[in-house]
Each structure stands twice: as structure tokens, then as C-alpha cells.
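Hi W.,

Here's what went into the run:
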Amino acid sequence: MARIAVVAGDGIGPEVVAQARKVLDAVLPGVQATEYDLGAARWHRTGEVLPDSVLAELAGHDAILLGAVGDPTVPPGVLERGLLLKLRFAFDQYVNLRPSRLWPGVAGPLNTVKPGEVDLVVVREGTEGLYAGAGGSLHRDTPAEVATEESLNTRHGVERVIRDAFARAGRRERRKVTLVHKTNVLTHAGSLWARTFDAVAAEHPDVATEYQHVDAAAMFLVTQPQRYDVVVTDNLFGDILTDIAAAVTGGIGLAASGCINPEGAYPSMFEPVHGSAPDIAGQGIADPVAAVLSAALLLEQFGHGEAAARVNAAVAAELASRTPGVTLRTEEVGDRLAAHAVA
Amino acid sequence: MARIAVVAGDGIGPEVVAQARKVLDAVLPGVQATEYDLGAARWHRTGEVLPDSVLAELAGHDAILLGAVGDPTVPPGVLERGLLLKLRFAFDQYVNLRPSRLWPGVAGPLNTVKPGEVDLVVVREGTEGLYAGAGGSLHRDTPAEVATEESLNTRHGVERVIRDAFARAGRRERRKVTLVHKTNVLTHAGSLWARTFDAVAAEHPDVATEYQHVDAAAMFLVTQPQRYDVVVTDNLFGDILTDIAAAVTGGIGLAASGCINPEGAYPSMFEPVHGSAPDIAGQGIADPVAAVLSAALLLEQFGHGEAAARVNAAVAAELASRTPGVTLRTEEVGDRLAAHAVA
Ligand SMILES: CC(C)[C@H](C(=O)O)[C@@H](O)C(=O)O
Ligand SMILES: CC(C)[C@H](C(=O)O)[C@@H](O)C(=O)O
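Here's what came out:
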């Protein structure tokens, strides 16, 4: 793995991405990184979200490391649809990977789980469903207005992400995949997901399976997050469930994600789940752990499992050593993580 | 309010409904109740889910009190689409009301909230969205299969449920309504919901408002459920969010719901959120509190606010007096609640 495009973005994005690069450089010297200026700041300055020329340049990289984009001054949807979702769709990043662990030392909101007990990964479909952008409206701003949103699901898209989930489960200790959908109401898409899941499951007799409706899964993520190993689900359900999983494991401040094109035909993208947090930007107090863990996902995706493991170990040591209530310094955390990861 | 149709249903349904009726009879003597045999048992016996003649008879009642329907032996969708959703749509029950309170004495899973701090109600749209049944598939069981689900939203349907939410908020202490949607991705439906919300909000300057994306709301329901008063949202988001709200306030065993046609053109339906729980059916150990709280919602809907308050007070006393780990007896709980409600 050689060429990384770095989109530091807005708010705390540049601060946390700097630490992720520091750690990457420490464990894998020689990574080539090119910076791209995208996000709210660029949009304000130039009106551009993602010029075709930049998209083409990004396509020439192996991976994208993204900090955070967005700002309250940008109208909703502009950067989401124009940048984040555009990249996911243009680069066919159909595996949206979101691990959640309750790390020792982290005080989660649940009194029912102990650190170390929760270790799950949501494999969220990233290129279909209600995110397809298929919808419209008629008679806008009249009493007769009607608005639609269409969830599009293909056997192609569903099967490949389910295959990825089973492959991941096969490499994990518990070897279990939970399919989450709403087959009792969304009968057409639900049936496609369920039949495809069963077909792929039949090829993996060593992997245990279960099915849950999305409402039940949302509940069990709160009451028994320990029960999950790999969860595979559609784009929108995955969006919701991964925020619940983050919440029960200490917040989105620790949540990493990868938008992955497993075949490597296009670059994959790695980014913390948190946003640009303009309220604390520029103060050097943002927690870079989610960005660093996203860099670890990047390492893992490109076959540097040993380096990824060292980063994860550094994060574990960092989190275990924190004193609740003490304000952290972004740079210092990055220094500690980099030092620990090469020690 | 005079005529109630009772659908005791399957599993623990009859056991908990009996207690709800006991309490109703105690606080409002003279309620006329007619029993209807619907659910898994009837389907197994006769193949019928909801005959037109029964639907017509139900329409002649003021309200329906439902225990629980369903059984693992019934194929998914049969009773959901054929009975529960059929009733919601046929009787235009567009307000799906789901209160969540963390009652004193109830041990919730969160270490961040104290009993009494959480008191929210989700006003879930009940007749539109992805529940409309608009979808289909092509090339089934081939690699070319495509399946769609369409979310249908009308100004008519969105406005009336938002109006209901504001009216409810106006009668509550905190007077706050949170709109939950996903406007940054579901731009057409999201825009309809957001514009309608703003228009109705302008008529209610005394009610505070906020907007949250569904993923953020799912997270905040876990980390800060105290922040919510009235939440208004679409059918599917409401399905998911109410299970999270139930989970953080002690589980669906305590969660009540009403499927309401506010105009009274059709009967409204009141039912515990929990299912038929076949694993504990027939043992007399199911908690009837959710069914009893659903009966309280029924009382409130029909103008018996004082009787509803007495039922709620009885539930509060019951829950505060429970010893963790002691198995309850369904009948005894019903007796205590009835006695307390009239004391
Ligand atoms: C910003 C938004 C478009 C995005 C999504 O909905 O996927 C975000 O919530 C996420 O989870 O990455
Ligand atoms: C049983 C199912 C159709 C139903 C729903 O999705 O509305 C249930 O989950 C609920 O919340 O009442």
C-alpha cells in the first residue's frame, strides 16, 4: 500500500487526521500522502464540493483518509450528498465497516456490560437501499404534496456485502453473523436479503447465523450488545444501528469506520464516525482515537494486520490509562499512540 | 366511551388483557366489552386472519384492546400485514402513540439516568411511509433480482400527525417537540416533513422545537433520553426509536402503545408493545403492566383523564414496591393495580 489521499476537512478534522498520520508514519514508514482540500471551507471559498478533476485524482490512490467534513453554515445535504455519499457511490464502496468495542477503561452508559464484553462489527451495505437517491415529489408546497423515497436493492449488491460479512465472521473467534432487516413489513427487499443470506450461509456451515428485525436489534444493542459478533444490514438500518453501537461503547468519539471497495478497483475510504465538531475545533482537545482507529482499519484492509494490531494495542493502553474528567490534548494523545505502537 | 372490542390474542395476550380489563372495570364500571378471537390460534384453526365481517364488526366499536398476536409457527408477515397493519390502515390510525417513562423502582440499563428523569412520548406516524406496502421485485431468485420498497409521504398524512404532536406538547410541562428524520439523505420526504414541521411550529410559538437526524436521535436516546419530551417521526423511524426508548426505560415489558384515529371516525387500538411471549405463556407470570398502561392510554383518549391518572398512580406504586428478582404473578399484579386505582 503506497498512495493515500488525505482529506483533513473541517473543524477538528485536520487536528485528528494529523494524529492518524503520525501513527501511520510510525508503524508503516514511507506511506505517500497527498492532501486534498475538500469540505465546508472549500465550498464557502469556491462553491465547489467535489470537482470531477479531484474525483479523478482521488481515484488514482489506494485509500482515502478523511477527518471530518461539514459545518452548520453549509445547507444540509450539500456535503453529505455531494461529497461523502458521492465518494461511496463513485468508488463502489459497498462495505461500510463499523466495529464497536467496549474498551477497558472506557465508561459506557450501560450498567449491564463490562469492558471487553462488547466486540462487534457492523457490515453496512454502502451503495444501495434508500441511499440510492431514488425519490421525488409532486405538488410541492401545496396541500396535495406527495414525496417518495425508494429503496433499491439488487441481488448483486446484497449478495456481495453478505459474502463479505461471512468472510469476516469466518476470521473471527465467535463466527456468528446476524442479519438485520424488517422482513415482516418490507417484504420485497426483506425477502431478497433473507433468501440471499440463507444461500450464502449454506456455503458457510462453520458460521452461526441469526435474523432480527431492526426494531428488535436496536433494542438488543442496548440491552445485550454482547450477543453480537458480525451484523450485516442495509444502508439505512446500518446508519442507525452503528450509532447505537457507538453510543453503548462510549460514544462516536471512539468510533472508526471504513467505506471499503474490497476488490480494490477503487480507493477505499477511512474516517472517524464523528463530525467536524466546530464547537471544540482549534482548541487541540479533540480525541484523535476514532481517527487513529480508522487508520488501523486502513492498515488491516491493505494487509498490514500486524501494524494494525500494534495500533489497536496502543489505543487499548491509551484508553485504559485515562483519568475520567481530565481534558486530553490531541497532540499528546497522538504522540503517545505513535510511541506505543512502535515500542 | 362505551363499547370496547377485546382481542386477547395469543400466548400471554389473554393473561395480560384480563388484568387490563380488571383495572378498566374497576376505574370505569359499565364498560361493554366484546371478545374477538383473532391471531395465530384462529389462523391455525381456520386459515382466517381478519375476515371482512369481523373488520366490519370491529368498526362498530369505540376502541380495541389488544393483548398480543403471533406465534413462531405462523409465517412472518401473515399476522403483521394481515391483522396489525391492516387494522392500523383500515381504521386510519395515524397517531401511533408510544410513551416511555423511567418509573421509580425500575432498574433501566443506563447508568446515566435516574428514575423519573425520562418521560417522553413518541408520536409515530401510522399510515404512511415505508409501511404503505408499495414495493415489488423483478427476476426473483435470479442473479438479476431487484427489489424495491417505496416510502410514500403526503402533506395530508405528515401534517395531521405533526399537528397531533404539537397539540400534545402544548398540554405537557416541557412543551418541546423533536422532529426526527434523515433530511440529509432522504431529501424529498425529509423536506416535506421539515417544511410541514416548520409551518405547524409557526402556529405554536409556545412550543420549543428541534430537529435531529434519525441516527443521532438513536444515539441520544441512549446517552441522554432525558432531553426528549415529544418526538414526532415517520412510521419506520418511529418503529425503531420506540424500541430504543423502551429498552432504556426498562424494556418492552413495560411499554404501552395506542394506535389512534384522533377524530374518532374509526376505532383506536391500544396494545402493549411486547409480543405473545410463547415461552412464558400459560404460567401466570407475565407482567400485565404494559397492557394496563395501554388501557390507561385508552381512558385518556376517551376523556377519562382522571381515571387514567389513577391507573398510572397504581402502576407507579406497583413498580416502586417490587423487589428485584422476585417472580411476579400476573393475577396478583392485576388485583393490586385494580385495588390501588380505586382506593
Ligand atoms: C452524513 C451522512 C450522509 C452519513 C450517512 O447517513 O451515511 C453519516 O450519518 C454516516 O453514518 O456516515
Ligand atoms: C409487528 C410489526 C408489524 C410492528 C411494526 O413494525 O409496526 C411492531 O414492530 C410494532 O412496533 O408495533
